[in-house]
Specification:
Helices cover 31% and strands 30% of the residues. It has six helices and nine strands, in the order ααβαββββαββαββα. Strands 1, 2, 3, 4, 5, 6, 7, 8 and 9 form a nine-stranded mixed beta sheet that branches. Helix 1 runs antiparallel to helix 2.
Amino acid sequence: MPFKALLHRASNSAFGNASDPLGAAAPNAYSAVMSQAPSPIRPTDAEAIALAQHLLATARFAALGVLDPDTGSPLVSRIAFGQDATATPLTLISDLSAHARAIAQDPRVSLLVGEPGTKGDPLTHPRLTLLAHASPIPRHGPEHSALTQLWLSTHPKSKLYIGFADFGFVRFHPLKLYLNGGFGRAFHLTPADLRT
């Protein structure tokens, strides 16, 4: 049966039943219909992988989601964003920030990269969501020095504060990725896809 016909039947059965005038059965009916709906996720192809890699390579800032250690609620911040020499996502943050404190308590994070253009519906522009594990990098070590030079090559304005004692790098190890390439173009990617 076509999807629209299934949805129409579910609506009638949930809201048009005299024994259920408030439509209490609606959530169950909707779930039943959606379980029969075709998946909106497309097979991951070379074009999707290239788009995800491009979004990561060109992003200079991102939205970072963490879990607030005081409440357990989601907390979202805007952060500077880049990649290390292996194309692994990276940021430079202050230990004094709320998101740094949250990462210290729970390294599970989510990031969103991809900004809308100047024209058109913002929701039609591609964006990439990452579920990741955050790993702070020791400030007094050889890796920090190498990352500092790399970071300044793409974020020159951070030269003003990159040497402050409370600033350090955090690497994000992707676990799962969700690519929305625009209307009707959704994909699930793996960390291995980013290395192809």
